[in-house]
Sequence to fold (365 residues):
Amino acid sequence: MFADVACVLTRGNKDYDGGVQKLVKLDGSDLLKIPDPDKAIMRLKASLPLCDWSSTAFRKVAAILGETLFLDDEQEHCRVIWDDNLIVLKDGKSVHLSLDERTDLYFHGFFSASIKLPADYTAGVVVAFYMSNGYIFEKNHDEIDFEFLGNIRGKEWRIQTNIYGNGSTIAGREERYGLWFDPSDDFHQYSILWTHTLIVFYVDDVAIREIKRTELMGGDFPSKPMTLYATIWDASEWATNGGKYKVNYKYAPYIAEFSSFVLHGCAVDPIELTSFKCETTPNPNTIPTGITPSQRAKMQSFRKKHMQYSYCYDKIRYKTPPSECVFNAKEAERLKKFDPVTFGGGHNRHHGKRDRRSRSSAVSI
Fold:
């Protein structure tokens, strides 16, 4: 069972120019403070779940294991699930870690979370709900990203979707959209369907983007097992108007809330990296397997009304559009109003690789 989680970005102390990141329960009690997110203090690389969000055991284990817990030394991701894998022993001085077949690594499936974003001034803040395997494949990792880009007061949040395959971070495939609601007012469901042949992004059961695998994409299509993450981070250098507006910690803490997680897919052995357990055939009423004709009509309507940027029309980044792009003259014309030179912005504004380690608060799901 997955607990509700809130990720918080708040002000650091005078000796640190970034934010102190806290992972907290939704009732507001602090679970973990990271005063120096650039310091790697975790030495365990096994994919064991390491954080308990539901009991006081977290503080007990923190006291027992001290600085050797909670952060992995590359991504600094804090694991969400303990279940029965970790038991604090009666002496109060030891913990018992067990290893079984449960995993947080998946190969294909349907993944979803209900998310409520921070309100008010959020420029420079990025909240992400994404899949990645960067801690396993450091040089050729895959990603499937939902990123929520904050804004100045009075301006709306924007969603950015993107995929990487085989470390192809330079060849980003970003799209950006507005929304038909304020995502800071209430929870909304954001979902990813990932199969061998396609990837679909959903907002409240509305498909907003479909990426079909083509032969020419090669390794650019995500094709290795990944873990699901939720994070909030300071992306002042690019997230809002190309870095013009930055995070202002006067308005901190910035709290992103995550709930109602769905993980439906093939669990993968983290050592052998082979699938060992797949969910039963999904009910199409609850777990989609593709886009129906009615969903496709809604997707086309959404994209016509809300899409603000697509890499397929960015002439500065791509003199020739990537192989999977299908040119739509009307769509290209609509995007010109957002940026008449590049159809949405240059490479620096929609760049690929981001370093979530420097000032981020992340949990794996």
